[in-house]
Design goal:
- α6 packs antiparallel against α13 and α9 (252-264) packs parallel to α13.
- This protein is of the alpha/beta class.
- It has 14 helices and 17 strands.
- It starts with 6 loop residues before the first strand and ends in an 8-residue tail after the last helix.
- It folds into 2 domains: 7-169, NAD(P)-binding Rossmann-like Domain (Rossmann fold, 3-Layer(aba) Sandwich); 174-406 and 429-471, 2-Layer Sandwich (Dihydrodipicolinate Reductase, domain 2).
- β1, α1 (16-31) and β2 form a beta-alpha-beta unit.
């Protein structure tokens, strides 16, 4: 059922995500007139605010985290905000929350960001208080489990109160413009799709590099590690968008049907097809930083880096490796996809001394959104000593190419889609379970073979074994 909700309920409304992303996103949507005038936003958390105190809290967050040039509607936006304290373990508290939310006969959208231990109690409270009715939908922020079993447990709990068509599982990478542009690049341009297969592509690289360490996420990260924190969700979603077959239509069902086919085609990796690491003290941007064990305050075998050589067992991608790499305390913050094409089958220029280099498509997602395609071109000259060729990049910097439209953060799009009920950029249950199935098999293999993290210096690109993982196939990581 498609409807635009006129109530938005934010759980975790005083948390870091709300301050940095949710409140600024909602304020920006308000300022641009993209949400209905009658939309009311109700925040809830344990903190004992009333409406006035929460509005002051929100004002401080917006002044701290929102660019000054986008605060034009802040004063009137704050009038939309309401607040109700809630302890998720207090059943009576949900009745008070429901009274605060008021009538939901025009629809309620719920954004749930809560500790895993409170998940079932929260869903039960929503159902018991009437906040999970037919005109309610729920957006779920990760973490949603730590393996397939716990993920199913959480999804079962949610599905007892909400059917799948009203569940919006959030992966904020899917709200990024360049990630969405993957579909436009592939399926709106005739020159790419005929070449987008094993006959013409040598390999694909996906890198998500971070310069930060634990950054206040000690409790969560040490229990998760890089594989579950980054590969299981963000990186596998990027892989699915790169590798999926053309959907019949641009809608939630068609796109997610094709993505899940890719995820189910992932081959179990061999013992020598992954490398894990953990950073030690080093330097980032010329400043010394401590090692993981020093930040954590104890010895741990949690991986902060992982590199994987993945394969898809289907017709389109048979024999094409997908190299995945992610880690903390790497030299630069970077998320990118590299599609490396094959050599031309025969170079007519070789006899004249020229060397050809395969074409390469680089899709930058952050910190800069850009697309670069390298093409071979002749170096100007009279060629008396032979023809010279050079790889020349064709660069499209997205903010420059589209100077008019406002550059939005991912949560603006995702929150608006949650309010309006568009599931296209959200993750379906069978996708999540296919992702966890592959990840669990990797972790079981690590345990079976006694694989432990190798040390790497903060500020480097991870353990040297990660370089060897690619180089033994004649591949160099794009840096």
């Amino acid at each position: 059922m498609s409807f635009t909700a006129n109530r938005l309920l934010l759980f975790g409304a005083t948390g870091d995500l709300a301050q940095r992303m949710l409140l600024p996103s909602l304020c920006a949507l308000h300022a641009d007139g993209l949400v209905a005038e009658d939309l009311e936003i109700i925040g809830t958390a344990r903190h004992p605010f009333d409406d006035a105190a929460y509005r002051n809290f929100a004002r401080e967050a917006l002044e701290k985290f929102m660019p000054a040039d986008r605060r034009g509607g802040m004063a009137t936006f704050l009038n939309r905000l309401h607040y109700q304290p809630l302890d998720a373990n207090d059943t009576d508290g949900f009745a008070r929350l429901a009274a605060k939310v008021g009538t939901v006969d025009q629809g309620l959208s719920i954004f749930l960001s809560t500790a895993p231990a409170l998940f079932e109690a929260t869903i039960a409270g929503l159902a018991a208080s009437g906040l999970a009715g037919e005109l309610s939908r729920i957006g779920l922020e990760k973490p949603l489990g730590t393996d397939l079993e716990t993920s199913r447990h959480i999804n079962d709990a949610v599905s007892r109160a909400f059917p799948e068509e009203r569940i919006f599982r959030i992966d904020h990478y899917l709200g990024k413009e360049t990630v969405q542009n993957l579909l436009a690049l592939r399926f709106a341009n005739i020159m790419f799709e005929p070449l987008w297969n094993a006959a013409h592509i040598d390999h694909v690289q996906i890198t998500v590099a971070e310069t930060v360490g634990l950054e206040g996420r000690v409790g969560f990260y040490d229990g998760a590690g890089a594989l579950r924190d980054m590969v299981q969700n963000h990186m596998l979603q990027l892989l699915a968008l790169v590798a999926m077959e053309p959907p019949a239509n641009y809608n939630a069902t068609a796109i997610r049907d094709e993505k899940v086919k890719v995820l189910r085609a992932l081959r179990l990796i061999a013992p020598d097809e992954s490398v894990i690491g953990q950073y030690r003290a080093g330097a980032i941007a010329g400043k010394p930083v401590p090692g993981y064990d020093e930040e954590l305050g104890k010895v741990s075998d949690t991986e902060t880096f992982v590199a994987i050589k993945a394969h898809l067992d289907n017709w389109r991608w048979k024999g094409v490796p997908f190299y995945l790499r992610t880690g903390k305390r790497l030299p630069e913050r970077c998320t990118e996809i590299v599609v490396q094409f094959r050599h031309v089958p025969h170079s007519i220029f070789a006899g004249r001394g020229a060397r050809t280099v395969p074409n390469r498509l680089v899709i930058g997602i952050q910190p800069e959104e850009n697309i670069s395609l390298s093409l071979m071109a002749k170096v100007p000259g009279l060629d008396r000593e032979g023809i010279r060729l050079r790889s020349v990049p064709l660069d499209i910097t997205m903010p420059d190419a589209f100077a008019g439209p406002t550059r939005r953060i991912a949560y603006e799009r995702l929150l608006l889609d949650l309010i309006e009920g568009d599931q296209t950029l959200f993750v379906r249950r069978d996708e999540v379970e296919a992702q966890w199935d592959w990840i669990d098999a990797i972790r079981a293999s690590w345990k079976e073979h006694g694989l432990l993290p190798r040390s790497y210096t903060a500020g480097s690109w991870g353990p040297s074994a990660a370089i060897a993982l690619a180089e033994r196939d004649g591949v160099t990581w794009h840096e």
